[in-house]
Amino acid sequence: MANNRLFEVEGLSFNGEAVGGLASLGFDGGYQDVPESDGDGAVGAEDVDRAGLRVAWNLATTDVAKVNALMAAAVGNTEFSGRESGLATYRDYVVPGLVPIGFTLNLPKATDAVLTLNGLVRFATAATDLDDIFAATAAQPAPTKTYPARLFRPHTVSYADDPAVAPTHLESINLSLAAQRVHEDYSDTDIGETAVDVGPWAALKIALVLKDYSVSGTSDMAAKLMMAATGKALTATLSGRGGAADKTLTVNNVIWTGHNKTKAKDYWQWTINGSAGWKNGETEYTLNGSPKLFSIA
């Protein structure tokens, strides 16, 4: 039997934004509604139907500094290529309508920072089906490479209280954002979901994982952050990989909301949780405009 395998994912352009360092790209399809009839004297349900094709997707990349641009990009075409097994050629895909509905960003001490986006496919017309979404062109030349600015090892962390709180011994910083509401629907003779829209965004979630048990007076680091003033900025330096320049993570309008601690035979560890809302006084923050709620620059 012929070898029709594909491997690796290269040349990703997500809604027009070039992305390097792609770790994975996944699609999960199914039907929104699968009605079953009642068994009317038969052994079981006699009729099973389906309607409203729904395709979820997820994307993981080490090109983390592009998080704002990727989340805010106008929905268009997403292009990528897979290597054809046993050949020197590639298979090219153009997938329309990828709508982001959230992300997670993990900035660890010892490995590459990873950004994971997730969302839904918006079907372009009532007649659009999976053949249209996953149309492929075989035997293509190698795509253009995009090299990511990989980052790891957050350090020099500071929360802008007065005076500033500067925790050390960082294990990781984790951010996540999700749509507060996602509207999705099909109707009439639509094969798939022709309507996918993002409502307001929920607050940005933050988690600091650290081993800093330093004490100032009788207050330890977790207590200092938990009792710090609200609505201030959190900053951290992120080390560049392979000789690349360091970058700075900034999260504005932070409020610390909880913490937990692990005491074990290894070094004790804090996880301190917070949120960042989209308005502080007269200042309204944006996803990719000015001022941004969060950024890596």
Question: Can you give me a brief rundown of this structure?
Answer:
With 297 residues, the chain is mainly β.
Q: Can you describe this structure?
A:
The chain is mostly beta strands and 297 residues long. The protein has helices at 67-72, 130-133, 221-226; strands at residues 6-14, 17-19, 22-33, 51-61, 77-84, 90-96, 98-108, 114-121, 136-140, 151-159, 170-178, 182-185, 195-198, 204-210, 215-216, 219-220, 232-240, 247-262, 269-276, 279-280, 283-284, 294-296. Strands 3, 4, 7, 8, 10, 11, 14, 17, 18, 19 and 22 form an eleven-stranded antiparallel β-sheet that branches. Strands 2-1-5-6-9 form a five-stranded antiparallel β-sheet, with no helix packed on it. Strand 18 and strand 19 form a beta hairpin. The longest helix has 6 residues, at 67-72.
